[in-house]
Amino acid sequence: MSEKLRLMHVHAHPDDESSKGAASTARYVAEGVDVHVATCTGGERGSILNPSFQHPGLEDNPELISEIRRDEMARARDILGIKQDWLGFVDSGWPEGDPKPPLPEGCFALVPIEEAAAPLVRLIRSFRPHVLTTYDENGGYPHPDHIKCHEISVYAFEAAADPERYPDLGEPWQVQKLYYHVGWSVARHEAISKALDEHGLENPYKERASWLDPERDKRMTTRVECADYFHVRDEALIAHATQIDPDGFWFAVPREIQAEVWPTEDFELVKSFVETTTPEDDLFAGLR
Q1: Mean pLDDT within 73-83
Q2: Measured between alpha carbons, how far is 131 from 227 in angstroms, rounded to an integer?
Q3: Which residue of 69, 89, 200, 260 lies most exposed, with the fewest beta carbons within 10 A?
């Protein structure tokens, strides 16, 4: 393929683009790939997860969180070297309690699929990505916005190519490959846990073993080498100061250890319109 390669990531909230696949994103940007992130919501209902975060006026005006998170996204976007668009939906929040309360009226998770997918279809037809990534059917974890993000991504992947659907949203475009992110596989957990033990370091990830599914590992098809860009990922994460504690578990594993035992970010190839053979080491396998 002689034209410039284009990659689109679809994420639920600002910060997801930095916590999922950011090092491989930085690698592809460095290689000259155009990378575009679609962010479904503004993260308006996100909690302050960084205990050291302070912002004058936030306590008296909680609605400032929306503006703050947009500013954080702008910094992360610049660090990663990506384009980014907001799809314009409202964060659904994380429902807590037993039973869980109803989701708030008008939130992203409650928007009908045809309506929720429309801005993504428009963006796909405008940007014309060769590869699209998103979350699996469980959302990576079962946040209602992550599950909805999965649903609209799969829906828009198909609808954007169909001239009979959304005819007023641009010329049809067939994305060539669809991937799901694979975050914490059992194999990755075991490799990092073993390395931490060998170096005598505290392991904050022990509890993860209880909710990892070994069957999920079997779906991993593609491992993208990106250890040289772990520092870019970390800088982008820290840009989301409301969400990321710079002294927290995100940075518990020294980068040298990560690079040695698990130097990749991992994906599941879901659909491809080009010939490729798995396992792959490149999201653009079959397209170059």
Answers
A1: 98
A2: 21
A3: 200
